[in-house]
Design a protein that fits this description.
By secondary structure, the protein is of the alpha/beta class. It has 8 helices and 7 strands; from the N terminus they run E-E-H-E-H-E-H-E-H-H-E-H-E-H-H. About 40% of the residues lie in helices and about 15% in strands. The chain has a 7-stranded mixed β-sheet, sandwiched between helices. It starts with 6 loop residues before the first strand and ends with a helix.
Length: about 230
């Protein structure tokens, strides 16, 4: 890897890796790090170009972030882990799982999407406009270039076909808010396309892990504790 990813490590036991969303950092999981470190060895990672992780020189894509995760696991001698990804972190987790299923014990996808059609239009339309505007000024402004690059993750990615999930047999929890920015039908599609998935909706918006931490943690913990 051309960079070192910043991360928070807490607790002992079986590894649990937390992946935050677009434009965020590992601090998003403050309520999960504290809660799950009582039972697990928790790694909350800053994605490349997010938080305190440097951008590096490689392509700024979901596939690259999944590759970064693989190299992080190799570096830290983590042969297998539970992986919990939120939003873009869920897309990274799913992309990683499709490439390295043997490295995942259980998979938690919170507010993930297979493609941009999964996002509610009222949310996606302003992102597309913002991306186009930032792209126009990207050559003249470093800030615009960074904004365009970050928004490109939501405009041009991910691109996963539902049929690709058929071979992913690891136990999965697909979880989202009842008023999520991801369409309910799309979240259901992900769960239905995974052969061994459980689907749960929690009353709330996209940010249930942070705003409804107690309920979110309980649901995730029950899933992880199941034999």
């Amino acid at each position: 890897m051309d960079i070192k990813l910043n991360y928070i490590e807490r607790g002992t036991g079986f590894p649990l890796i937390l992946l935050h969303g677009n434009g965020e950092n590992c601090g998003y999981f403050e309520h999960q790090i504290e809660y799950f470190s009582a039972k697990y060895r928790v790694f909350a990672i800053d994605t490349r170009g997010h938080g305190k992780s440097p951008r590096g020189g490689t392509p700024f894509t979901i596939v690259q972030f999944a590759q970064d995760l693989n190299e992080f696991m190799i570096e830290h001698e983590i042969e297998k882990a539970h992986i919990l990804g939120f939003s873009d972190g869920g897309n990274i987790a799913l992309t990683f799982a499709l490439r390295h299923p043997e490295k995942i014990e259980k998979l938690i996808l919170n507010g993930a999407n297979l493609n941009t059609s999964g996002v509610r239009p009222v949310i996606q339309a302003p992102i597309v406009i913002g991306y186009k505007l930032a792209s126009m000024f990207a050559k003249k402004s470093e800030k615009a270039r960074k904004n365009a690059e970050m928004m490109s993750l939501m405009v041009n990615e991910p691109d996963i076909k539902p049929s690709e999930l058929a071979g992913l047999t690891v136990p999965a929890l697909v979880i989202a808010g009842t008023r999520d920015m991801i369409k309910r039908s799309h979240t259901q599609l992900i769960a239905e396309s995974l052969p061994n998935a459980k689907l749960v909706f929690i009353d709330g918006d996209h940010f249930i892990a942070n705003k409804k931490a107690e309920e979110f943690n309980r649901v995730v913990n029950e899933f992880l504790e199941q034999a």
